[in-house]
User: What shape does this take?
Amino acid sequence: MTQNPYNVSPLFRLDGQTAVVTGGGGILCGAMCRTLAAAGARVVVLGRTLPKLQQVVDDIRAAGGEAIACQADVLVKDQLQAACDQVLQTYGQVDILINGAGGNHPSATTSAALPFFNLQSADVEAVFRNNFTGAFLASQVFGKQMANQNSGVILNIASMASLRPLTRVLAYSAAKAALVNFTQWLAVHLAQEYCPLIRVNALAPGFFITEQNRALLTNPDTGEFTPRGKSIVTHTPMQRMGQSADLLGATLWLVSPASAFVTGIVLPVDGGFSAFSGV
Assistant: This one.
């Protein structure tokens, strides 16, 4: 029987594939893990805090999916290699890597109490390493396995700060901008030097409230937006913050066969923020 070329469902399935998600215990990446599992992937939830990882794993298994928790610091290459060895021993392959570990820190964020001239280089470097170097190291470790397999997909989680420098978050913006450049470089490098079937792309989320930025965007007493939060919504044509579910379709598209001819791109998921000039 001839297969229907217009049957789109298989394009978005990940059956038999193994997906590693760094930062998988977080709100956004945890939702990505659950979506990948629902699409048929065997999910490796990787991060530093085991209870958070295990909660995501338990949710996936309760829904009938397959997942394991893997405790590792993305800034320690030996730990990443040990994690990769564990994944290969358990599942035999690595098909998808989502580099989601990252975040900002108040010590690298300017404010009235902490002007630019008082920022400490060690604090700026720590945020840069957390957002760029971790993705670089994970791409080395798991990307090497993809090169050995002659197939694979890497998805970097960039940010609106990658495309539009945001006030106050100096180190975070610089690191995420570097991550976009790295995404494009790595897409070309892996395709030309190893295998054209290896793809590398990035998502650039707009503004989503997470545990890390909640105090910056909302008032802890009232739950109302802070002036910065209000400014973001005003400059977002869709007039709201993003929700974790808003990232899931784009994530699934970029790691699935549906985007087989897509590499080296950065996809904004931002409610129109990057398209609006403010006028």
